[in-house]
Amino acid sequence: MKLQNGLLAVLFAVSLSAQAEQQPAPESKETPDTTTQQSGNTETASGQMVEQAGFSPGTVARAAITSAVQDREPTDELEVVNTDQNQLYFFTDLRDMSGQTAKHRWEYNGKVMAEVEFDVKGPRWRVWSSKTFNSDWTGNWKVSVVNAVGDVIKEESFTYTTAAATQAAEPPLATPTAVQPATDAPTTPTGVSIQK
């Protein structure tokens, strides 16, 4: 009797597992993730950006195209640069971007020529990038600061021009003129003496 009960139990278990294999698997209730996280912002399935609490797009307190950076400060601010200068710097003073990545994007006549990324490690972070120029790249340039979600938060532009064009654009120096005395007496040009 015990043997029969044991056999019946085994047959019953085999029968249940065979029924389970024959039944179709339940449909998956998983739905695709409709959002992707990008440095503090969420992008919905429709592509719309939604700002999340705690994220700051950041600001740029100062920006300058400069010929050099000394002691973490720009030495000058340039708008027109001639081809005698073959390297320039883009200096920026970033604010409220701690923990994010910022990018300097150098563009020539609308074409991206270089991108330099920075890890911002404080609430005020000064960074600069440099670009070496080919003398054929005369024309309009733009350098942008791009935040972690791809927004341009600051732009500076300058013109890269030939040295001859820069000199022609500069106004000529004023030539000093001699002031004549207001008298009826005959006057002599400055530096000429008349012997009588």
Reading the helices and strands in chain order gives: HEEEEEEEEEEEEEH
Number of strands: 13
Radius of gyration: 37 Å
Distance between the termini: 160 Å
CATH topology descriptor of the domain at 59-169: Immunoglobulin-like
Tell me roughly what share of residues is in helical segments.
10-25%
Structural class: mainly beta
The total count of helices amounts to: 2
What's the gist of this structure?
This protein is mainly beta and 196 residues long. The protein contains 2 helices and 13 strands. It has a 5-stranded mixed beta sheet. Strands 1-2-3 form a 3-stranded antiparallel beta sheet, with no helix packed on it.
Could you please describe the fold and organization of this structure?
With 196 residues, this protein is mainly beta. It has a domain of 111 residues: Immunoglobulin-like. Helix content is 14%, strand content 39%. It is built from two helices and 13 strands; from the N terminus they run αβββββββββββββα. The strands form four sheets. A five-stranded mixed sheet has the order 7-13-12-9-10. Strands 1-2-3 form a three-stranded antiparallel sheet, with no helix packed on it.
Keywords:
196 residues, mainly beta, three-stranded antiparallel beta sheet, Immunoglobulin-like, 13 strands, 2 helices
Summarize the SSE layout with pairings.
Layout: H1 2-22, E1 36-38, E2 41-43, E3 49-51, E4 59-66, E5 69-70, E6 73-74, E7 80-82, E8 87-95, E9 101-108, E10 111-119, E11 124-132, E12 139-146, E13 152-161, H2 163-169
Parallel strand pairs: 7-13
Antiparallel strand pairs: 1-2, 2-3, 4-8, 5-6, 8-11, 9-10, 9-12, 12-13
